[in-house]
Design brief:
This protein is of the alpha/beta class and about 300 residues long. It folds into 2 domains: about 5-25 and about 255-300, ATP synthase, gamma subunit, helix hairpin domain (Helix Hairpins), CATH 1.10.287; about 30-255, ATP synthase, F1 complex, gamma subunit (Pyruvate Kinase, Chain: A, domain 1), CATH 3.40.1380.10. It is about 65% helix and about 10% strand. It contains 7 helices and 5 strands. It has helices spanning about 5-60, 95-110, 120-130, 150-165, 195-200, 200-210, 225-300; strands at about 75-85, 115-120, 135-140, 170-175, 185-190. The chain has a 5-stranded mixed β-sheet with strand order 3-2-1-4-5, sandwiched between helices. It is elongated and about 115 Å long.
Length: about 300
């Protein structure tokens, strides 16, 4: 049985650990609120960008020949872009997105397709290197606080791979933020850009109907040339959206993990305290028995 000194040392160690986990929980909670605000501020821009693309596509005679929308007759090479975190202590955040990516890899290889890996975040890169995968691209240092410039760097690399026909399909795998307790792994086809993006939906059609009284736009240059410039911006926007979602998911997962760790530390402290009290009571009882035995020996 451990001595009283050992138990007190364990209690002090767990208390120090609980201070750290509690501080990390509070910091993650404060940063999560800012991350949610950034997602909300970005949505109007993304919606307006897609609405602009839909209007331009309707004026264009054809947009299927644009580089980022050309579909390959046969998909032989697939690029998986995995968005992970730069740090751990975030529960299942990194593990679940990597497991989903490996599932997609097995499916692709079973269809005879070659797989190329690109990763955002140090954790994902270290896992892939440990499995001896070759990385075609890696970005790190901004997974919990991404900027639009970071999304541009990723988008330019992906567009170059696709336009140079080094890959036939680009798939993005990331954690989508649902709530502070729920983060879902999401798989999105980035390239080629789906035609549905330029066809619009019911809401955009209603918005177009509301503008029917306005005169037609005169495009300069041609709508096809405008779309050719807008498609890379759309790609950057989609990647930026995914990075923001992943950042919020990381902070939410870290906050939950640290809250659970603090709770477990409290339970461990209570268990050690009970063990310490029992050990101290046993020592006191033993001392009393020794005193009584000594007194009886003297009187006897």
């Amino acid at each position: 049985m451990a001595s009283l000194q050992d138990i007190r040392r364990r209690i002090a160690s767990v208390r120090n650990t609980r201070k750290i986990t509690k501080a990390l929980e509070l910091v993650a909670g404060a940063r999560l609120r800012r991350a949610q605000t950034r997602i909300e501020e970005m949505r109007p821009y993304a919606d307006r960008m897609q609405e602009l693309m839909v209007g331009t596509a309707k004026a264009a005679s054809s947009f299927r020949n644009l580089a980022l929308m050309q579909r390959r007759d046969e998909v032989r090479r697939v690029a998986f872009v995995v968005v992970s975190g730069d740090r751990g202590l975030a529960g299942p955040f990194n593990g679940q997105v990597l497991r989903r990516a490996f599932e997609l890899e097995r499916q692709a290889r079973s269809q005879g397709q070659d797989v190329k890996w690109l990763v955002v975040g140090r954790k994902g890169a270290s896992t892939l290197r440990f499995r001896r995968y070759q990385l075609e691209g890696q970005w790190a240092g901004f997974s919990d606080r991404p900027t639009y410039a970071d999304a541009q760097a990723v988008a330019h690399a992906l567009a170059e791979l696709y336009t140079n026909q080094e890959v036939d399909r680009v798939v993005l795998v990331y954690n989508r933020f649902v709530s502070a307790l729920v983060q879902r792994v999401t798989v999105t086809d980035l390239l080629p850009i789906p035609e549905d993006v330029l066809q619009g939906g019911d809401e955009r059609e209603r918005a177009q109907e509301e503008r029917q009284l306005n005169p037609d736009f005169i495009y300069e240059p041609e709508p096809e040339q405008i779309l050719e410039r807008l498609l890379p911006v759309y790609l950057e926007t989609e990647i930026y959206r995914a990075l923001l979602e992943s950042a919020a998911s990381f902070l939410a997962s870290q906050m939950t993990a640290m809250r659970n760790a603090s709770k477990n530390a409290g339970e461990l402290i209570d268990r050690y305290t009970l063990q310490m009290n029992r050990a101290r009571q046993a020592e006191i009882t033993q001392e009393i028995l020794e005193v009584v035995a000594g007194a009886e020996a003297l009187t006897g």
